[in-house]
Amino acid sequence: MLNFPYKSRKFLYHDDENIRDYIFKGYTIPYLIDNNKNKIVLLDIFKWKNK
């Protein structure tokens, strides 16, 4: 993720190319690619549950 931040899919709930989500073992981790500061900012970590 750190070497290729645009490799993950675009986040479904935002129409911004710099917001992506990474899926790992059932968890979704949306993150923002901040090109101005050369950083990746984690926005949330959540797991979808079927209720």
General description of the model:
By secondary structure, the chain is mostly beta strands. It is 0% helix and 43% strand. It is built from no helices and 5 strands. It has strands spanning 9-10, 19-24, 27-34, 39-42, 46-47. A hairpin with an 8-residue loop joins β1 (9-10) and β2 (19-24). The radius of gyration is 11 Å and the shape is elongated.
Structural class: mainly beta
Major sheet summary line: 5 strands, antiparallel
Number of strands: 5
Distance between the amino and carboxyl termini: 31 Å
Mean pLDDT: 88
- H/E series, N to C? EEEEE
- State which percent range the strand residues make up: 35-45%
Helix content: under 10%
The low-pLDDT segments are: none
Give the CA-based shape.
Answer: elongated
**Cα radius of gyration in angstroms:** 11 Å
Output the number of helix runs.
Answer: 0
Question: What keyword list fits this structure?
Answer:
single chain; mainly beta; 0% helix; 43% strand
Itemize the secondary structure elements and their pairings.
Elements (H helix, E strand, L loop, with lengths): L8 E2 L8 E6 L2 E8 L4 E4 L3 E2 L4
Antiparallel strand pairs: 1-2, 2-3, 3-4, 3-5
Structure at a glance:
This protein has 51 residues and is mainly β. Helices cover 0% and strands 43% of the residues. It has no helices and 5 strands.
